[in-house]
Design brief:
The complex is a heterodimer of chains A (about 350) and B (about 550). By secondary structure, chain A is an alpha/beta fold. In chain A, about 35% of the residues lie in helices and about 20% in strands. Chain A folds into 2 domains: about 10-30 and about 40-60, no CATH class; about 80-155 and about 205-335, 3-Layer(aba) Sandwich (Rossmann fold). By secondary structure, chain B is α+β, with helices and mostly antiparallel strands. The radius of gyration of chain B is 35 Å and the shape is elongated. Chain B starts with a strand and ends with a strand. Classes of the chains: A alpha/beta (about 350), B alpha+beta (about 550). At the A-B interface, α4, α5, β5, α6 and α7 of A face α15, β13, α16, β15 and β16 of B.
Amino acid sequence: MSSAVISTSAALGRPFIFDAESEPEVRPIAGPKKPAGAQGPQESPIARVFQSSIKNQQSTIARITPASQLEIRPAPEMASSGIPALDALTGGLPRGCLTELCGPASSGRTTVLLAALAAATRRGEFCALIDASDALDPHSAAAAGIDLDRLLWVRCSESPQNHRATENHKINHPGVPPILPDPINNQKSTINNSARYSVLATRNSLHRLEQVLRATDLLLESGGFGLIVLDLADLPMQAARRIPLTTWFRFRRAVEHKLTILLAIEQHPIAGSCSSLLLQLGVLSTQHSVLSDQAEGHTTQDLPAHAHLLTGLNINAELTHSRLERKPARAIAFETKTAWAG
Amino acid sequence: MPFACIYVPNFPVAAAIRAEPDLHAHAVAIFEGKPPLEKIVAVNEKAYALGISPAMTKAQAELCSELALRPRSPLHESSAHAALLDCAQSFSPCVEDSASDTVLIDLAGMESLLGSLPQISRAIAARATTLGLEANVAVASNPDVALLAARGFPGVTVIPPGKEAAQLGALPVEVLFHDSLEGEEKKSADRLLETLERWGIRNLHALAALPQVSLSERLGQEGLRLQQLARGAASRTLVPVEAPLVFEEAIEVEHPITLLEPLAFLLNRLLEQLCARLGSRALATQELRLTLELSNLTGIDDECENADIPSESDGTDTAMLGQKVFTQQSKINNQQFVRVLRLPLPMLDHKLFLKLLQLDLNANPPGAPIVKIHLAAEPARPRSAQGGLFLPPSPEPEKLELTLARIAGMVGEHKVGALELLDTHHPEGFRMRRFVAEVARKTPQKKTSDAAALGSAVAKSAVTALRRFRPPLRAHVTLENGQPVSLVCRKKEVQGDVLWKAGPWRFSGDWWEREAWSRDEWDLALQNGNTIALYRLVHDLLAGAWFVEGTYD
């Protein structure tokens, strides 16, 4: 099998015209070749039509600025992400651009997100977090050093039907967290429930996604934010993939030439070529300490659970894609610490 | 000492036109009284040209098809009078509230601030027009001369000192009496006018020329007072009023309003008037109170069905702004529906206010047709802010407020804002409050010290964050020696064998409240297929259930 690469111009049937090139030669489609002196009034009507159409095209093209004369886009201003290791890897987060942070659960996406928010609020900027899953933990945010007065938190809510059910639950059972249908305890209708849950979850995801996109549009239009974060980390992949590429292009255009950093965290990259920076995160290992007074005479494996303490994560960050510099993918590792680790 | 007088001719008509600017190009007559004895009390010049005059009956006036007939509205007149006072007080603090349609202003010392007297008088007329009132303005060295000139001459009049009698001479003697006299005063005025008419005295020049003693013998002190007025020689001091800073506008509608679009139209008009009044006093507002008087709703269901307009039950989409029908309830009698719009900062933009009210009403429809709209603004000093060259940009308060209102309409009122941690150990111990984009200047020192402390903390390493599941995921946990070894959850990703665990960490609180809580927390590493993730598992000791509260990420 062979494959051929066809350029866009060729595929669209447009002629390749450059400034230095002379006017292309045009010949009639049919008929014998005529002598040079016989051209002019005796030129065939088809040739005249072709000539005029090409002249029209050229006049149109002449109005377009050639690529060689296009202004070179200045390099975006970079702002600190709040994690020195990441800044060393990427140079920071580019302003006026879209940055994607991808990774599975427990890969440190939220940690990086909170660190970026903390750094932005420390710079005196106002930030917005559009939380598709309503997953922000206020105590983690405070521990990360975010100035909460400067953070606008948009908590995308569930669909109205579920919302009503939750509200009813709150009224009937105050103090007890509302629980959605539990497939474990209802063994008889496990299949129905799981199917129902799946449908419900998809509907919820789409509802939240719609809210995220509209809120992002509104906030980008409003302007004045130093950092706008789209938290899509818990959205199912099939829901996240439903975001049309045109939406990402719109976001990119809206944020362009502004001082706003648009940051999206998700499980897999979804913005395609619209993102200027794509970071893939993954957890290398967990850090946990052993409480000293419990460890005497035991190996780590034999120790009881209360002798362990989660103290942090070792995160691996890989710069997968960057429009700012043409360098091969690089990776770096950094540590995070839990708030109680000291 | 110069004085200015603002006089609004045909005040009831002017008040009606201010409430309904579309009437400006029409012949308008205002009627008053109990049916069927309604009488015309005021007409504008166009109506007068059509042959309509005060004291005609409404039935007679209705024969003229081009005439717009409106009932006299005390609401409109009080609003117009308040606007008149605002107009006057925007030029001088010393203002006399002479009548509902007349205001006197002391202009002493204003020339150096506001320009020459003709300039000031033109500015007063222009300000009155901005506030929706077509007024006559006269400036003279005497308050009574200014008042008579304003009543007698249309437009702007400036009477130079010493020429009062000459200027006023051509005016008819009727200008000496106010139109709105009632009862004994009116009878007395009518008798005087009749007497002067019999004497052939028709203008002020003739009255001024009468001998003083003879006039006093025949008409008494009242006659002398009128002659002094006619000569422009009466002298008195102004009685200034301290007009309360009350900014209210109201409108009554003939037919109950059931749709948001016509309501928005009327609200826009009221907001424009309010903002113009606030602007004339160099004020803004931080709180708008909208009171809608509702009537019973008999027959509205049928009307809506006939109009083929979607009802409230299927109108949950906020995109249907403007076409939303209020909830149809069977019987609501004269209830009041109050919405208060509180702004984080003083603002003065009627378009912004209208959008915010629209969004608010769309989210909280009144529930019945509206018969009266009352809008009040709490005045506040306009904010004075200067952006620094080296400060990071911040959202514009007006734009931000609108954006937040739109987002709140989408996600819910209490789902957008800034976080505030509560003084509790409860895991969800926080509340949402209004997001304000001007926090930097409030506590700069505290923020700086906090930022320095946090900056040093963050320089070391980032803090591992928890992502919460809201609501928490109920889990089925397999225990071994009282410790979790595996868990199953409705979310496929959050289940598997426990690879590593730490805990339990016991927390409890609010035991003195009804919402007491007590729980054991576990930190787990779960293996689900090839992936390993860290979760926080919670055992609710009061309910006896297990939940996955969140994931460390």
